[in-house]
Amino acid sequence: MKRGWIPIMGVCLVLSFSACKQLLPYQDTSLTAEQRAEDLLPRLTLEEKVSIMQNASPAIPRLGIKEYEWWNEALHGVGRAGLATVFPQSIGMGASFNDSLLYEVFNATSDEARVKSRIFGESGVLKRYQGLTFWTPNVNIFRDPRWGRGQETYGEDPYLTGQMGMAVVRGLQGPEDAGYDKLHACAKHFAVHSGPEWNRHSFDAENIAPRDLWETYLPAFKDLVQKAHVKEVMCAYNRFEGEPCCGSNRLLMQILRDEWGYKGIVVSDCGAISDFHRPGTHGTHPDKEHASAAAVRTGTDLECGSEYASLADAVKAGLIDEKEIDISLKRLLTARFELGEMDEQPAWSEIPASVLNSKEHQALALRMARESLVLLQNKNNILPLNTHLKVAVMGPNANDSVMQWGNYNGIPAHTVTLLEAVRAKLPEGQIIYEPGCDRVDGKTLQSLFDECSINGKPGFLAEYWNNRDREGEVVATDQISTPFHFATTGATTFAPGVEITSFSARYESVF
Question: Which residues carry out catalysis?
Answer without folding.
Answer: 269
